[in-house]
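Retry 2 of 3 after timeout on previous attempt. Resubmitting structure tokens to design endpoint.
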């Protein structure tokens, strides 16, 4: 599944007074039809996309579906398969922030009502980058609640992951063949010196917490003590162990040049750049969870030479082919996003209005060199990969085949979608 995305980030900063709405900054609300045209121009049939939560979810069981109805109706007509991003880094003002214990149950209601309104949607990312959401909001103090403590981080984390789990359960009741693409940042922390080994080890255990909880995997003893010491109860921990929906999931992993870190003895962390790369870090996550993988986010800024992003795309694609050929069942690749983004250079912490040349198209919707290069990859590889790889048969149905999917869903003995390996060499992974 070759894909791109239209980011719907909307965290708050400055004590909640300013909302960073990336769709507004990138003019998607005005240019959504043109943006969907560009997706098709690239030869893509899959789009990471979601309605802006803060504009759609007005209160418990209260919604403004107008923009979602228009945009998702258009995607359905185009037969573009969305991977629906329901929560991307922020909450509506009436819910406050990720410290709110009411968020998980209320969010499950929102997910249920979305799935009821758009029954043809099959692929979901209920909560995007759960680890980053909790860490940037409550570990580093950058977004939303802007707290920076272990207790605040664990509180946000348990609420975010519980919301994700409950949303999956709610969606599966309406669409048992739903598949969840857990887009998560894949990180690694390198020790700068022998004295830094211990803090690096802790950071490398902590990076797995969101997916461990989401997939019902027992955490290691040190992380269990960390969770208990930081306010999680045994009952809360056992909720995650008893509600695993791993069989319905694809592990989406995001990799940028900022995903590897250098750790010093005093606990300081600075960017390390690309040291191991996507290949090695993907093996670490796949070895832990043994799930099919989709490369769900990457990008790189177009610099003064004009080919910097093109070279990064080539490297990422080479890594995808490497892990595929080495036996990881990888089912998709995504350049994120469709257009340039705004204030990504400060991780959305500052409202500067600075355009970052990260997209396949600029904000005037002119194609960039990386857009041309990606279109070429899609054209050349789209028909080759399904027939030359031993991979997964992912039961993904585009909007035009929803009726077929529903008929198969209710056939005798059907139990919804399970993402499982198949032996034939011509197994097809989506489209």
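Retry 2 succeeded. Sequence:
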């Amino acid at each position: 599944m070759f894909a791109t995305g239209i980011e719907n980030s909307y965290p708050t900063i400055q004590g909640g007074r300013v909302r960073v709405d990336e769709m507004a900054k990138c003019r998607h609300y005005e240019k959504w039809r043109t943006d969907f045209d560009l997706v098709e121009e690239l030869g893509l049939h899959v789009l990471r996309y979601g309605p802006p939560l803060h504009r759609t979810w007005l209160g418990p069981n209260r919604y403004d579906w107008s923009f979602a109805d228009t945009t998702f109706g258009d995607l359905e007509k185009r037969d573009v398969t969305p991977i629906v991003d329901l929560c991307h880094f922020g909450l509506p003002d009436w819910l406050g922030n990720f410290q709110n214990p009411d968020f998980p149950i209320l969010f499950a209601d929102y997910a249920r009502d979305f799935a009821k309104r758009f029954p043809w949607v099959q692929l979901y990312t209920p909560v995007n980058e759960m680890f980053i959401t909790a860490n940037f909001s409550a570990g580093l103090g950058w977004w939303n609640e802007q707290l920076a403590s272990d207790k605040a981080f664990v509180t946000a984390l348990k609420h975010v992951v519980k919301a994700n789990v409950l949303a999956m359960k709610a969606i599966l009741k309406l669409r048992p063949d739903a598949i969840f693409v857990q887009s998560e940042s894949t990180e690694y922390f390198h020790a700068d010196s022998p004295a830094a080994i211990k803090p690096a080890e802790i950071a490398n255990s902590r990076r797995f917490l969101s997916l461990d909880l989401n997939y019902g995997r027992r955490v290691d003893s040190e992380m269990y003590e960390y969770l208990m010491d930081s306010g999680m109860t045994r009952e809360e921990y056992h909720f995650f162990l008893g509600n695993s929906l791993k069989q319905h999931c694809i592990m989406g992993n995001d990799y940028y040049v900022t995903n590897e870190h250098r750790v010093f003895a005093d606990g300081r962390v600075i960017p390390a750049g690309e040291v191991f790369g996507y290949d090695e870090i993907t093996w670490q996550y796949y070895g832990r969870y043994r799930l099919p993988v989709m490369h769900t986010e990457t990008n790189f800024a177009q610099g003064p030479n004009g080919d910097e992003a093109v070279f990064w795309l080539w490297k990422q694609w080479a890594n995808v082919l490497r892990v595929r050929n080495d036996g990881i069942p990888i089912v998709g690749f995504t350049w994120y996003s469709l257009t340039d983004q705004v204030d990504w250079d400060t991780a959305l912490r500052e409202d500067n209005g600075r355009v970052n040349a990260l997209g396949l198209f600029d904000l005037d919707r002119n194609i960039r060199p990386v857009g041309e290069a990606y279109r070429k990859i899609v054209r050349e590889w789209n028909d080759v990969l399904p027939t030359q790889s031993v991979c997964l048969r992912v039961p993904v149905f585009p909007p035009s085949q929803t009726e077929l999917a529903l008929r198969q869903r209710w056939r005798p003995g059907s139990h919804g979608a399970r993402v499982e390996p198949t032996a034939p060499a011509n197994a097809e992974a989506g489209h």
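Attempt log closed. Residues 421-431 have pLDDT under 50 and may be disordered.
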